[in-house]
Amino acid sequence: AESVAVTVAFCTIASFSDKISLMAWWGAATDVSGKHVGSIFGLMNSFGALGGIFIQWFFGWNADKLREAGLEGRAVYDPSFLVAAGALLCGSIGWLAINSNRVIDNQKRQ
Fold first, then answer.
1. What's the whole-model pTM score?
2. 67 and 82 in contact (C-beta within 8 Å)?
3. Which of 8, 11, 62, 82 would you call most buried, defined as having the most Cβ atoms within 10 angstroms of its Cβ?
4. Can you list the alpha helix ranges (DSSP code H) found in the chain?
């Protein structure tokens, strides 16, 4: 968007959409993990950190490659956002396969 107000509005909506899902995310992890909740939380945070590290590198690498190919301006950065959006879409679809009524251990909850 060319307008600062529109850009801020879209960033606000994106941030809100990202954060609103966290409650369900952690709730499902708590339900599924049973007595292993600490291990699952640690695993989820570790993979989230790896994703955060990788995306930083990817944006820079991809921008450099696109500049070398002769692109400039938004054409350098927009494809990286599309890749990130695709990864978020894949993650969203993956969450549809989670059954939070099924616990990963065989022991009953108390």
1. 0.70
2. no
3. 62
4. 4-20, 22-33, 37-68, 74-95
